[in-house]
């Protein structure tokens, strides 16, 4: 499958096949593709707490989720918490791009997953404070989001998207770039 197909076939599943575990090779491929993401100064601020195939960490991540998310995410064999290092590693300065970089990491992971028939769903509905406490995440790290991955047990269901004219501008902010005429 090419990249375009992987992107067009991606959606955030909420129903997962709990009988189809992820192999360590599959997980390594997901994470290896994700870590190829660009980042400010190549500082790669992303870190993960990884719960796999219903292990103890999986159970602990479930505890941090909102009741709504916990209900569906319990069937996803992979659960993770994405954590950003707040300062650069090479100097004592806040990395203002850390969330952007971690978002790119997460995006790459999604595309790789889709290419393999695996789907993921991000979760803002969780307690970063509880995750920090349970996993002893130091203060120099920011707890960003939780996410679930696994083989979907539901049909393809992609959400609508804004048109290009709604977010691509020319001349000044708010003036649509006319994609039909090329300007
Ligand atoms: C940062 C972030 C937080 C999200 N939080 C939740 C969540 O708490 N619960 C949930 O069911 N979906 C959550 N989502 C999934 C979005 O609702 C979903 O990506 C969006 O509706 C677009 O759908 P699609 O990914 O299928 O294209 C989150 C997605 C992101 C990127």
Outline:
With 183 residues, the chain is of the alpha+beta class. It is 32% helix and 16% strand. Helix 2 (24-34) crosses helix 5 (98-115) and helix 3 runs antiparallel to helix 6.
Task: Give keywords.
binds flavin mononucleotide; globular; alpha+beta; 4 strands; NADH Oxidase; 6 helices; four-stranded antiparallel sheet; 183 residues
Q: What does this entry look like structurally?
A:
The chain has 183 residues and is of the alpha+beta class. It has one domain: NADH Oxidase. Helix content is 32%, strand content 16%. The protein has helices at 3-8, 24-34, 56-64, 67-73, 98-115, 128-135, and strands at 46-52, 78-85, 119-123, 141-150. It has a four-stranded antiparallel beta sheet, sandwiched between helices. It starts with a helix and ends in a 33-residue tail after the last strand. Residues 11-12, 14, 69, 121-125, 145, 158-159 line the site of flavin mononucleotide.
